[in-house]
Write a structure and sequence with these properties.
This protein has about 180 residues and is an all-alpha fold. The protein has eight helices and no strands. The protein is about 65% helix and about 0% strand. It is globular and about 55 Å long. It starts with 5 loop residues before the first helix and ends with a helix.
Amino acid sequence: MAAFYTYLISSLPMLQFGVKPGFSLEQFLATCRDLIPEKDWQVLELSSREALLEQDSKQPTLKQWVEFEVGLRNELVKIRSGRKKIDPAKYLRREGHSESALYHIALNSHRIPSLVDAEKFLDQQRWLRLEELSFGHYFDLDALIIYCLKLRIIWRWENVAQADKQAQLARVLAKSYSEV
């Protein structure tokens, strides 16, 4: 029987794309660690890391998310390598989804002139996929996993917003001039 975390999940604030939550991913995980079984916490902790894409998870929501993410990244590789006229095979990850919707998402993001806007578009599509995955999961481990993945997306953009853009530009320019 699946575990239900009614009180924990109902106490979490609603997440919105582009809106900073009142707590970090680490705080979320620390809260969950004390309130859910160790086995579930390990699955949740895995979902908070990029290494998730290299794992073969048996958990259905994580499995669907990894297939989507790997499939999307593979489609981006194919489009980008086609433009550079290089073989994409060595850059492709293991098989993910191979549906036409992922190709269209990748192609639409590739057509956006601004790299930041293209990345934001991709993350909005990821958010929409997480919304689809959340259907029917309100107070279970799947809901916590989806919440965790959404937090990762939000904090990625918070880090971009808080970055010292002038210092980063100076560092990139210094590196590019030293290579010439």
